[in-house]
Design goal:
Layout lengths: L13 H16 L4 H14 L5 H18 L2 H17 L3 H15 L5 H17 L3 H15 L5 H17 L3 H18 L2 H21 L4 H20 L8 H17 L5 H17 L3 H17 L3 H16 L6 H17 L3 H65 L4 H63 L4 H17 L9 H4 L3 H8 L6 H12 L3 H8 L3 H15 L7 H7 L2
Helix pairs in contact: 1-2, 2-3, 2-4, 3-4, 4-5, 4-6, 5-6, 5-17, 6-7, 7-8, 8-9, 8-10, 9-10, 10-11, 11-12, 12-13, 13-14, 14-15, 15-16, 16-17, 17-18, 18-19, 23-24
């Protein structure tokens, strides 16, 4: 079956253009207050992040200049939080971390709870993007504490939406259901159609996760479809008011997939109806991953009908759509090419199958290399993020100590009889500063150790990648030997030559036990020996710092299966719902 992966809410097109034009008109009107102009510049800058990020950054700089002229820390905090959101939209991780650090600095100098809440919300977004799940959840909860009673319902709905998804991915279905309800309630209070669609979709996802765990309860399945249908109807009725109309394409595609997966064959017409809607909406809003996934699902139906030629045509259309993306959805492309290779092999075209397998290898290598670069960038951003926070804390403490020292000197000048007492106090203050400096150096040393561990994980990643590549090459070489074609035998000789070259790097391909000798043993002890080879491999990828999406590509399983695998491993390890699997695995290394 075709795997639906890598689909996000995307970026709106027609409605987005209307919003940009409307914001430009508001700015040109010249009747805005300073606060109104700063907020409008921030909104317009974010809206331009997809089409013209440089103009968006220029607008944010204009807002920053306005805020600096007023000297108001609340305005400064708000503008820097806008910057962080814009940098995340264009994948500039280190500037995003620095911007949110500045926002936090100024937020600490204002009593405006709404601004504090917005800054902590965007801090959580940056942390979530950096895969710092626990830190992002703490930031979201802090944001909700500041926003309580401020009637900032749209922001609260957005926070609850992300938290519901996080609890679902961790297998805590009760937590997912709770925050999905909060999301729907605050979305109703906001009255905004985007929030309402997200709220109902969050409820639908909660019922879907619960049904997957207990398929005997059909009411869970029907509730999932009900809330998806409500979100769809609401979106269609308010299509012109949606900031992100692309959400409709995602919802209708989900409904088609749910009908195909969970309902009897007589519901095929319903599945095809929503699939057709998803294809039309995806093309209208230029959501190419959605369009490609629709073609993939049509390919599944063609294969079920025994029409492999038509199935291949749909897959080729899907591949063309993915390749036309400005930022190619690599996991989706890899899955399409793999399906094309399978179809070619089924119809007996070994040469075409081999060609598709070769494309798969080339694209996988490029995707793996890009993933490594992204992981390094995220690591650097995390380092900068933590370093700035520590430097700020040290600077604040030093400033406080300097004020205390001034008081000491004044008292010494005014009262010589008490001089010895205050000199003694001053001496202890210097000792304290020395200890704080030592603590800062220790923190730097720990960061260096973390980087050393990262290099070890890089070695492990390379080892695993070579193993996967060698396995695929051996499989291809075996298939070639079964075919008496001189051209394919040349390819076989190339593979043999490449394998011989790879043997020169065998010294790098150390067993994981040489890097962390007690890791596997500790895992099995904790799980009473119940972990399978796949479970151990998944835990290894967690230790490497790979995201769920990257693990799915390497293990060849769906994102939903990844979530269930995490839940199963946590049960085997005896971890509670609130305990983090990632944190537990890292404590064993």
């Amino acid at each position: 079956m075709f795997l639906i992966i890598g689909i996000g809410w995307g970026r709106p097109v027609k409605a987005q253009n209307k919003i940009i034009d409307s914001l430009r008109q508001v700015l040109a009107g010249g009747r805005l207050s300073v606060d109104g102009r700063i907020r409008t510049l921030g909104q317009l800058g974010k809206a331009l992040s997809a089409s013209n990020p440089q103009e968006g950054l220029a607008l944010e700089q204009e807002a920053l200049d306005l805020a600096r002229d007023t000297g108001d820390p609340a305005r400064m905090a708000l503008v820097y939080s806008y910057f962080s959101q814009l940098y995340i939209a264009v994948d500039s991780l280190v500037p995003a971390s620095r911007a949110i650090d500045s926002a936090l600095f100024f937020a600490g100098r204002t009593e405006d709870k709404t601004v504090k809440g917005m800054v902590w919300y965007r801090k959580g977004l940056v942390e979530d993007y950096l895969d710092k799940v626990e830190e992002s959840m703490r930031s979201f909860i802090t944001a909700l504490g500041f926003l309580e009673g401020q009637k900032e319902y749209a922001t609260e709905a957005g926070i609850y939406y992300i938290m519901a998804g996080t609890y679902g991915s961790e297998g805590d279905l009760a937590g997912q259901a709770r925050y999905a309800r909060f999301c729907a309630q605050t979305a109703l209070a906001s009255g905004l159609p985007d929030n309402l669609c997200n709220g109902y979709q969050a409820l639908a996802s909660s019922f879907e996760f619960r049904y997957r765990k207990d398929t005997s309860d059909a009411t869970l399945r029907d509730s999932c479809m009900y809330y998806n249908r409500v979100a769809c109807i609401l979106g269609v009725q308010n299509k012109d008011r949606l900031l992100a109309p692309s959400i409709l394409a995602v919802i209708t595609l989900n409904m088609s997939n749910l009908y195909a997966e969970f309902y009897p064959a007589r519901y095929k017409d319903s599945a095809m109806h929503y699939l057709s809607l998803a294809l039309d909406l995806g093309q209208e809003t230029k959501q190419k991953s959605v369009v490609a996934s629709c073609f993939g699902r049509l390919s599944d139906y063609a294969q079920d009908a025994g029409d492999n030629r038509r199935a291949e045509t749909y897959l080729l259309e899907a591949l063309a759509v993915v390749n036309s993306q400005k930022e190619v959805n690599s996991p989706l492309r890899l899955h399409i090419i793999h399906n094309l290779a399978d179809l070619a092999e089924k119809r007996g075209d070994k040469a075409a199958a081999l060609d598709f397998y070769k494309q798969y290898i080339d694209y996988y290598k490029a995707y793996f290399d890009a993933a490594q670069v992204t992981a390094a960038q995220k690591l650097d951003a995390q380092y900068q993020f933590g370093k700035t926070e520590r430097d700020l804390l040290v600077a604040q403490q030093q400033a406080a100590n300097n004020r205390k020292l001034k008081i000491v000197y004044i008292i010494l000048f005014a009262a010589s009889l008490t001089g010895l007492l205050f000199l003694f106090r001053s001496y202890h203050l210097h000792i304290r500063l020395h200890k704080e400096e030592s603590a800062r150096l220790l923190a730097e040393q720990q960061l260096l150790e973390a980087r050393k561990e990262y290099l070890q994980k890089e070695l492990l990643a390379g080892s695993l990648a070579l193993e996967e590549k060698d396995g695929l090459l051996q499989s291809l070489q075996q298939k070639i030997t079964e075919i008496s074609d001189p051209r394919l035998k040349k390819v076989g000789r190339l593979i043999t030559e490449r394998t011989r070259l790879d043997e020169d790097f065998e010294s790098l391909k150390q067993d994981f036990a040489h890097i962390h000798p007690e890791f596997i043993e500790k895992l099995q002890q904790k799980a009473s020996g119940s972990l399978t080879r796949i479970d151990l491999k998944y835990c290894t990828y967690i230790l490497m710092g790979l995201s769920n999406k990257e693990v799915g590509v390497r293990l060849g399983i769906e994102a939903k299966s990844i979530r269930m695998a995490r839940y199963r491993i946590k049960q085997k390890l005896g971890l509670g719902k609130e305990e983090s699997l990632d944190q537990f695995v890292r404590t064993l290394a």
